[in-house]
Design a protein that fits this description.
Layout (H helix, E strand, L loop, with lengths): L5 H5 E10 L5 E9 L7 H18 L3 E3 L20 E3 L3 H19 L12
Parallel strand pairs: 3-4
Antiparallel strand pairs: 1-2
């Protein structure tokens, strides 16, 4: 008989083969995600909405790479839930280039002098 622990209900280890690494590289990585990530702080909720709006306005791409395992017949078709975006064929180099560009855009758009994403100290 197997007994479950509290961690079995509250967290999950996620493995991703295309994870951004410190310094900007892309490689295999894993992280622990809590199952109940409930945000209740009004300040944090407002910051999250501001971040999403800024990233969407400045870093959004007009298309999306076709996910692995999906039929190539979907190339050129609209992406569900993303009005105006269409699937395009991408190789691994293109996927890595897009991740790197997204990271650089996030640093540029979200960085403030001495902030969490800034490379300069205050």
């Amino acid at each position: 008989m197997t007994y479950l622990t509290l961690a079995d209900f509250t967290q999950k280890t996620v493995v991703n083969s295309r994870m951004l690494q410190p310094g900007g590289g892309v490689a295999m990585g894993k992280y622990t995600r809590r199952a109940k990530n409930i945000v209740s702080s009004p300040g944090l909720i407002a910051r999250t909405k501001w971040t999403a709006a800024n990233m969407r306005a400045n870093c959004s791409l007009p298309d999306k790479c076709l996910p692995r395992g999906m039929s190539e017949a979907a190339i050129g078709m609209p992406v569900p839930g993303a009005p105006g975006k269409k699937y395009v064929a991408c190789d691994d180099a293109e996927r890595e280039r897009r991740l790197t560009a997204a990271r650089e855009c996030a640093i540029r758009v979200l960085a403030t002098r001495g902030g969490a994403y800034s490379r300069r100290a205050a």
